[in-house]
Specification:
heterodimer, A: mainly alpha, 23 helices, B: mainly alpha, two-stranded antiparallel sheet, 19 helices
């Protein structure tokens, strides 16, 4: 009975748009009622998270297909529909989004004091955008969510960020928009290629999968998607916006940037690049793996050189996301599942690190390592949480980071042992910079600040008073998850398994098809092979010329054409 | 033969606008001192009535005045753009006092006269009517640009616009005389037929090239854009808003219709204007965007942005298909709301602040959340970021470009959109991220008409972005009915 009721509720729509409803409610509130605004935001985020529970419970492990699908007509004229659903790849990312939003709103409870209304509205709109990206199965819908989320993030960085916030906000939005508009061009090109092949105008992702794209074009389309996602991840040469944005954003912004926005890039590779352009993707594996490894080592080395804790965490993201990319492009079950798991892990661990840095900043109003020290004694509870999170980020066995990185390394090793060995260096480096940071902040002599922090110091006996109930409740669920994934990753992996296998099957089949035919031909002797190749070539060119002649024919039709100067 | 039969039924919207213009003049003369509001209401009602009538006869295809006045769904749709723009400009004008001692009576009637002229221009079926319509629209526009006659900048704007406008009209006329000389007719359909048979390829190209130069001046296409920034900056802001939409739409529409009439002729002569239009489009997008980056005056910045937007519109024309014209119609409607909206906010701010520099926008969010929020909506929409309407406009334009394999145009369009975000960000930054120079400054007062107008335009900017289906259907059926007949 309940199952029936549940299946009638459009769960995905609720999860996606509930935050928007909350934002609308807040927008109608008097900006002076700060407490009410915070409560509404938190309750909305909590309810949204609660709605994810039936998603997880009702998720069918056995099928690779998309579940909880909703499809309604939207812009019929161009074949775009409101088509949403989740599969094993997006399930945990949706849950992670709603989880981290709750924590972020909790973390900004006291640290955001001016323009609270605008902040909470931005956060909730951002949540809708992020979840929308993960559930969209229509390319146009996806693109709209993908871009719509830029504006709230721009505002969060630009209004509530640090001293260099305006520069960081503009850099963030320009970088991202440059990438995504090129992706729009590629989406449109794909749309018309599909129309040329089948005569159907559609943006439906499931129908666009397997679109036969002419050889040369596939590379360009792949590159346009690649650029957009690589900027978002960010991969090595496109990462320069990240340190600025992460460091200048307020704590909640950093958490969501690192926890979710970066995952949208890696998710994009998995959802779009791999299945839409399987052949080019396979050819691109070495290049992407090398960029990923450069990212891993470069990010770690730069993190080693930082004195600013937040910058260190930001650069560690470049390194960790390199791991994720390496895993995804290993193109085997271990690598891809490890990559997805590591996306979730990174969201949890790095999100937690940013929360912790935020807690330190709230106390000392500094993020420089030399301003801290000796916190182990002053803040024992905090120290415990910090230690667990640090170890999780280093990938200590038994904690979440280990499960993900181990699988990634296994996957990479199966693909290419050299890649795996190079990436392993990154793990060692991460242990160095994380432990070094932990040591500088937690041990040694405490350094209380002076000036504005003194009032707090008098109240609590020290600037570094231990965390209270609110901060504890933010960190507890994170630690639970860290152990849960570390000890029982099977719970998560089993839910990804079917979808990941289906995805890899698609990539493999698309690449295997021409090879098989050549082998078959080879078994029948060389002349046949040549003939078949030539025949295949003829077929291709015929197909192309047919397409072209159709276009010409339609262009010549007087009734539907404008009578411009030259056709 | 002696009397031309006139089907006045087809001219109803034009006649309503014209009589509203005269009525405003008369009421202004006879009325009492406190007549500002009544004139405003009169103008709004006239435009509203014309809008309804034009919408009612929307699917009519006919011609009258011996074929010099043509009505078809495409033209009617464009007239809706004109009337809607004039309506919204008027709505946001009341009480914005172009200049303190100036009466607004003539202003409203000039606005109506100009709208009337543009409507006639859009319907023109022969060269003479094109010229008459153009001049009937341009002369009120010259006066409007210099309307704030106590302001030196406004004078400068009026004179510049007048001199260059007259010059371009002369060039246009010159081109027309060649076309007439070649074909012996002023009717567009007959010219289109006979240029194909003339065999004088070079002469036809020259004549049409001169004609095109005259038109592109009105459309503010680069390299004929030099007058735009100065004129927009100096004109009273609502007038600049009117120019930014209506005058360039009119030029574009004339070009679309003439190319449609002449298509067969050009095909026969193997003359292809796509290359020329593509080059103009790229130049317009690039120059409009790049020079916009260094502006510090918001009105000037919006002027450059409006130049860049003409570049996007030209992409639809370069495609040379009916889908291209669909995309232009969609873009025009979308652009109308966001452009007039952005200028309306500038009107309100400059009235309160006495200027429209970026500095005047600092901390606007604190002083008037409504103005700041609606400006943000318009600017983000102008950039083309979903889910706002500007995205839908650009989406269809780029889609047509890619469908017709005009990849260069699409990519230049995309890249200039990114650059344009940079200068729109400057305004957003000033409004939201910066604090006002004088923290105690009073909130910016917003008149009720302005309030209604801004809410309406923001609403449409958002609604058309989320659900563009009605607009798309209307554009498609208008173009199909037009070209199908």
């Amino acid at each position: 009975m309940t199952g029936e009721v549940m299946s009638q509720v459009p769960l995905i729509t609720v999860v996606t748009f509930l935050p928007l409803l909350g934002a609308f409610l807040i927008a109608l509130t008097n900006p002076g009622r700060v407490r009410f605004i915070r409560t509404v935001a938190l309750v909305t985020a909590l309810v949204d998270f609660a709605v994810c529970v039936p998603l997880l419970a009702g998720f069918d492990v056995s099928t690779p297909s998309v579940q909880f699908v909703e499809k309604h007509a939207w812009i019929d004229a161009i074949g775009s529909s409101y088509h949403v659903g989740i599969d094993g790849i997006s399930l945990f990312l949706v849950i992670l989004t709603s989880f981290l939003t709750v924590l972020s709103i909790g973390a900004s409870w006291t640290s955001i004091t001016h323009r609270v209304k605008g902040f909470m509205v931005s956060m909730l709109i951002l949540e809708t955008g992020m979840i929308g990206v993960f559930v969209s199965l229509d390319l146009l819908l996806f693109y709209i969510f993908w871009e719509a989320m830029l504006i709230p993030m721009y505002l969060i960085i630009g209004v509530w960020g640090g001293p260099q916030r305006i520069y960081a906000a503009v850099k963030f939005i320009l970088y991202t928009l440059a990438g995504s508009l090129l992706m729009l061009v590629a989406i449109l090109a794909l749309f018309f290629i599909h129309h040329g092949n089948t005569g159907e105008y559609t943006f439906d992702l499931l129908k666009l999968y397997g679109t036969a794209i002419p050889g040369g074009v596939e590379l360009w389309l792949f590159l346009a998607f690649f650029l957009s996602f690589a900027i978002k991840v960010p991969m090595f040469p496109f990462h320069t916006w990240l340190p600025d944005a992460h460091v200048e954003a307020p704590t909640a912004g950093s958490v969501l940037l690192a926890g979710i926005l970066l995952k949208m890039g890696t998710y994009g590779f998995l959802r779009f690049c791999l299945p839409l352009f399987p052949r080019v993707s396979l050819q691109a594996v070495p290049a992407i793996a090398i960029l990923a490894i450069i990212g891993i080592i470069y990010g770690a080395l730069v993190a080693l050189a930082q004195r600013d804790v937040k910058k260190l965490v930001a650069y560690s993201s470049v390194s960790h996301l390199g791991f994720v990319m390496l895993g995804l492009f290993a193109l085997n079950t271990q690598g891809v599942e490890g990559g997805i798991l590591q996306m979730v892990n990174h969201g949890i661990s790095t999100g937690a690190l940013f929360l912790i840095v935020g807690m330190l900043y709230d106390r000392r109003h500094s993020r420089m390592m030399e301003d801290f020290g000796g916190l182990w004694k002053r803040m024992p509870v905090f120290a415990g949480f910090f230690l667990i999170v640090t170890l999780s980020s280093i990938a200590l066995p038994g904690l979440n980071g280990f499960a993900g990185e181990f699988l990634i390394l296994v996957g990479a090793f199966m693909k290419n042992a050299v890649f795996a060995a190079a990436a392993a260096v990154g793990i060692i480096l991460s242990a160095v910079y994380m432990l070094w940071m932990f040591q500088k902040v937690m041990f040694g002599e405490p350094r209380d600040g002076d000036g504005e922090e003194q009032s707090a110091a008098q109240k609590h006996g020290s600037v570094f008073f231990d965390i209270g109930a609110r901060e504890r409740w933010i960190l507890v669920p994170i630690v639970v998850l860290i152990f849960w994934i570390g000890v029982w990753p099977g719970f998560f992996l089993s839910r990804m398994h079917a979808s990941v296998d289906a995805l890899l099957e698609t990539v493999r089949n698309a690449n295997a098809a021409p090879v098989e035919s050549v082998e078959e031909a080879a078994s029948r002797g060389l002349p046949t092979l040549t003939r078949q190749l030539m025949h295949g070539g003829e077929e291709d060119s015929e197909g192309a010329s047919q397409g072209a002649s159709q276009e010409v024919a339609s262009a010549m039709e007087p009734d539907t054409q404008a009578d411009e100067g030259g056709e | 033969m002696s009397f031309v039969s006139v089907d006045f039924g087809l001219l109803v919207p034009e006649l309503v606008v014209l009589s509203a213009a005269f009525l405003v003049l008369v009421v202004d003369l006879l009325g009492s001192r406190q007549r500002g509001a009544s004139l405003w209401w009169l103008t709004l009602c006239g435009l509203g009535l014309a809008l309804l009538l034009a919408a009612r006869g929307w699917n009519l295809s006919a011609s009258t005045l011996s074929g010099t006045f043509v009505l078809d769904p495409f033209v009617s749709t464009v007239k809706l753009v004109f009337l809607l723009s004039a309506f919204l400009v008027t709505l946001t004008t009341l009480d914005c006092r172009l200049i303190s001692r100036l009466s607004l009576g003539e202003y409203y009637s000039l606005l109506l006269f100009a709208t009337f002229g543009f409507m006639v221009l859009a319907s023109a079926g022969d060269l003479i009517m094109i010229f008459i319509g153009l001049e009937m629209a341009s002369i009120p526009c010259y006066i409007l640009a210099g309307y704030a006659f106590e302001d030196v900048k406004s004078n400068e704007a009026g004179i510049k616009y007048f001199l260059l406008g007259a010059f371009s009209s002369a060039i246009l006329l010159y081109g027309m005389s060649f076309l007439y000389g070649l074909c012996g007719s002023t009717f567009l359909s007959e010219i289109g037929f006979s240029i194909g048979q003339s065999g004088q390829k070079l002469l036809v190209m020259g004549a049409f090239g001169v004609f095109l130069a005259g038109l592109t001046f009105k459309m503010t296409v680069v390299p004929f854009h030099m007058w735009v920034p100065d004129t927009y900056e100096g004109s009273p802001t609502p007038v600049a808003a009117f120019f930014s939409v209506v005058s360039k739409t009119a030029g574009l529409v004339v070009l679309i219709r003439i190319l449609a009439y002449f298509k067969q002729g050009f095909l026969a002569l193997e003359v292809d204007w796509t290359q020329v239009l593509s080059i103009l489009s790229v130049l317009t997008m690039v120059v409009g965007t790049v020079i916009g980056v260094v502006q510090t005056n918001v009105k000037r910045l919006l002027a450059y942005s409006s130049i860049a937007h003409v570049g996007y519109l030209l992409i639809g024309l370069c495609a040379g298909t009916s889908a291209g014209i669909d995309s232009i119609v969609i873009y025009l409607f979308v652009y109308l709301f966001m452009s007039i909206g952005a200028f309306a906010v500038v009107t309100a701010v400059s009235r309160a602040e006495g200027g429209e520099e970026l500095a005047n926008f600092r901390g606007l969010n604190r002083r008037s959340p409504l103005l700041a929020a609606s400006m943000a909506v318009f600017l983000i929409s102008l950039t083309g970021i979903p889910p706002l309407a500007g995205f839908i406009g650009k989406f269809f334009i780029f889609a047509v470009a890619i469908e017709e394999k005009l990849y260069t145009l699409a990519i230049v369009g995309v890249l200039t959109s990114v650059v344009s975000l940079f200068y729109y960000c400057k305004i957003l930054k000033a409004m939201y991220f910066a604090e006002a120079e004088d923290p105690g400054a009073a909130p910016v007062a917003v008149s009720p008409g302005m309030r209604v107008g801004l809410v309406l335009m923001s609403f449409f900017t958002l609604a058309l972005g989320l659900y563009p289906v009605p607009l798309v259907e209307m554009a498609r059926s208008a173009v199909r009915l037009w070209l199908g007949s």
